[in-house]
Amino acid sequence: MEQEYLDQRLARESIDTIRLLSADAVEKARSGHPGTPMEAAPIAYLLFTRHLRHNPCNPNWPGRDRFILSCGHASMLLYSMLHLTGYDLSMDDLKHFRQLDSRTPGHPEFGHTPGVETTTGPLGQGFAVGVGMAMGARLLAARVHPELFDYRIYALCSDGDMMEGVAAESASLAGHLQLGNLIYLYLDNRITIEGQTDLAFSDETASRFLAYGWHVQHVEGENLKEIDTALGRAKQDSRPSLIIARTHIGIGAPHKQDTAEAHGSPLGSEELRLTKMHYGRDPDESFHVPEQVAGHLAAAKDRGRALEARWQEALHRALGDNNAGLAAWQQATEAGLPSEWQSALPRFSSEDGMLATRQASGTTLNALSEHFRLLLGGSADLAPSNNTALKKEGSFRPGMADRNIHFGVREHAMGAILNGLAHTPGLIPFGGTFLVFSDYMRPPIRLAAMMGLAPIYVFTHDSIGLGEDGPTHQPVEHLAALRAIPNLTVIRPCDANETAQAWRMAVDNRRGPTALILTRQKLPVLDRREHGSAEDLSCGGYILAREQGALDIMLIASGSEIHAALEARTLLQADGYGVRVVSMPCWELFDAQPKTYREEVLPAGGALRVAVEAGAGMGWERYVGTGGMVICMEGFGASAPAGDLMEKFGFTGKHIVARIKAAL
Amino acid sequence: MEQEYLDQRLARESIDTIRLLSADAVEKARSGHPGTPMEAAPIAYLLFTRHLRHNPCNPNWPGRDRFILSCGHASMLLYSMLHLTGYDLSMDDLKHFRQLDSRTPGHPEFGHTPGVETTTGPLGQGFAVGVGMAMGARLLAARVHPELFDYRIYALCSDGDMMEGVAAESASLAGHLQLGNLIYLYLDNRITIEGQTDLAFSDETASRFLAYGWHVQHVEGENLKEIDTALGRAKQDSRPSLIIARTHIGIGAPHKQDTAEAHGSPLGSEELRLTKMHYGRDPDESFHVPEQVAGHLAAAKDRGRALEARWQEALHRALGDNNAGLAAWQQATEAGLPSEWQSALPRFSSEDGMLATRQASGTTLNALSEHFRLLLGGSADLAPSNNTALKKEGSFRPGMADRNIHFGVREHAMGAILNGLAHTPGLIPFGGTFLVFSDYMRPPIRLAAMMGLAPIYVFTHDSIGLGEDGPTHQPVEHLAALRAIPNLTVIRPCDANETAQAWRMAVDNRRGPTALILTRQKLPVLDRREHGSAEDLSCGGYILAREQGALDIMLIASGSEIHAALEARTLLQADGYGVRVVSMPCWELFDAQPKTYREEVLPAGGALRVAVEAGAGMGWERYVGTGGMVICMEGFGASAPAGDLMEKFGFTGKHIVARIKAAL
Questions:
Q1: What pTM, to 2 d.p., does this model score?
Q2: What is the chain B residue with the closest CA to A209?
Q3: The complex's ipTM?
């Protein structure tokens, strides 16, 4: 019976249909990647018909298995499968592949096409996001309900995933954590864009993954029985699984199979005709789905509905058991943030003495973690420095998922894993490292912003103020570089209370990622009886200290430089100038305010505008104009105690005053 | 004799001296990392006294072996070794560890301290830079002289190097290329900042490196004979070598050995006293170097002078053989760029039809490669798209170094390897990928800028103009993010001739990296009889088309948007407006011009200033002020044919005109 199923003609016809549908769409678009959908069709067929627990009628069923196309350029494979198995993606959608406003963009986009679990294309990202999804499932199983969240993560991977460092980092962590709910298939086609893979790559991939602690199998990419058996074994193994499938790019295309030409361009009309003939199809017919194939593949809908119905029943039973974790999860996923959670935020007093914003962040995070039982995260091996440890919680370890994640020295994987966790219903993930190492994780930050996922980044050691570690560790361009990313909210609080408010905004914003930019060095806690309220951080910028008398000078600053600006204000006021200090922790929030508010904070007129930030000045002209002044870092930092550096680079009250007086 | 040497008390005393000198300096600085210098002292001792071919009297001897401290936080180990073996680094320098303007910054900085081969600290970078250095040596051996450039690259690596993706990527490439001139020692101390390494890491490291094609050995970190033998075997093996040394962080510190506390803070005065007693030293004595030890270690100077003298003789003999490659190398390293090389630059005609700037770049690169025989590079598996292939040259393959490098799908490693190649005397390295993937390689770009190294980045597919691949592949924030890096020159030419000039500036600038930002889509070649000269690109910005009549509007643009700006100018002029178009391919070059020039190009006054660039608008306010207009991308792109996207996002002449008219 089993054997019969696999051998039957219908399976082969289905696979050929997937291949040709994908090649047709690429051909019609005159753009795209036909070769990989063709080689991977047998695997996709088996996954979507026999292994994935999915319900095409409800792509958001929380208990579903996840499928990731890590080789996102093979998007037509995924679109073909979604269409054929009954997701809300029509043949017309396929015919508009890669066209403006279609639901079938060049690479799969999360939130854009039903059934696309995560945005892929930049190589290695899908691989690593899947590791985060597997960790998310483990956390839900441990903290909410073991059976309801026993779903698996499948991914299709290509050579790029074997070569990219982010995949290596996350493979190492997945092996360490024994994520047996991870099943990846590697399309070993021996072809890259520049030619044969062995131009640049000769790893023994199986040995390497065994060294990471994975379960590894080899199959022939056209042998359904082998693939099916391997998938069955992978599900039984407690380690993450890699199935290495020897495949042939562009299989069946007489002149392009096994060549780089099959990768990134349409086959061409003549080659496509010949390919159709190779598969015994009418060369003049395009986008053809034989009726029997359509029915066979659409059966996924009934299977899916039944699977989900059983799961919903189980959920219903479990809710009846007064499972507090489950109730909290349901609240988080259905109702959003609980009301009144803000009351959990700590309040700091100016009598608390000096406090680094990273310390205030640690205090705030721990307070929030008691309120949000599905808030989890950690650091890329810098938890004691980033203050990211949840003190009352355990560690996420092999076989024991808990809320403190040890990402290891793997910033890039951390970024992608946070995306996988953010894809997991109910979770609020965060991750920390030094701000300078945000550079290691920009690709997943960008994808989070694009997908509208909301991980929270805890970036500490935010300027030359970190001191002795020197220029390799001192961020300069990083604030500007992060602010340039659309839909990323960057907040650099100036004291402990602004830090608590920054966390409030981060948790409240579930439509995009937030980066918290925090000091290593201690700072005063501002006395809010004398200054503007820290809660005004929600406006992005606000008047921290008003001018006495006429407004001559506006000092606009963020983070630790606020204190130098306040010092400068005192000195300048003593000389008779009217000086306003504007705290500007977040450009994105400020720019979103109504014009009237922005002009109230930064009134037009003749006052000299001076921006002060110990980072690259780029972009501050937005607020100071061509006539203003930007006091910033003009190059890289240096290694010395923080105070010496603030003197050297001019971020003290006295230096600011001197610069202003020279300009007046 | 051999055995005797290794066992002798002098070796042990030397090692203890290195340990305590390092711990003393950290203690005095009240900041730094004592644990790793202590554990690695035996290895450093053996390397610097018996294995490294180096000349402390001439740290720039081209034939020397290179030593990289990839775990840069252990900088005091390197400073101790440099001081003790006779480099120009005094005891007083050691006593000013991590102080302002000292020669002993927190992490080793290239160009700052004699004997520091590359800047390290951000983990994984040193590991990968060493791979580039080894490739550089192979290229020099193949193209200049085999014996003169048979030097080796040694590195000390820590857990971070085993976990970071950039190290994994470059290890894979090093194994593939069989770089037997690479000898790395991994300090397997089982401790990371968050605690035991096995919190996050359980790779079988030896198996993993065997899978990459490396030669792997295990040694005990205190056993000099074992280490010595392993180093000897590593030199004989044709594969890159990893020597895994089981070490003990903070060894000899009674309470802190083998704990994370020994990692990143001073031992503390009492613990340091106890450590000194453990080593049989006077606990009250600091920075103590026994006379015998001083003499023993300083013998490196005589050995080094003799080694270099033999090499210089060999060089002299080889030059006598009329070796053309060697003469060219000597010219490149001693005299700099040959005069008149600019004549090799191609000139493109407006009658050549449409040409993508990536195509013009390929043509220019190939023309230059005939002139510069030590220009080498490639792409991260996108050579056909980046137009980076040197058509008359062969590939860099195992056992056969040539000028076309296949980096594989490893952008991050490519960036670091380019730094290693740029450290190699005489070489001009370049590397290509899509602009969006510059995010994968920012850490090494930053280090190149900091070190003043001059690799050339060929970043193609520079905007939504790449079309169907969609938002995952369309850069938005990348221009801003690159422009924010100090000492990086970012050039986005608008046509073929500006592209040739951009290459001229890139080759000419040997004091920092240059990023060339190039289109996928075809663009007209501007008729320079009607427009400003492309050679004015050297000023960063110039008047491309002057206004007719009064100056009403200034359009400032770069790259492909220049053509939309010119179109807008035509339309606006027809309506009677005087419109100037300023081509602004490079902010860094423009900002470096005298004020008079900048004001000539962008005169003060009432004209409306409009910046047009299909990227994030951030920073353009520098040129348009608060009263101007920035026509830019406000979010991410989309998947569609390029023309449709330029319409949708408003980068056509008509859209620009409409925006301007609405504002006037």
A1: 0.98
A2: B208
A3: 0.97
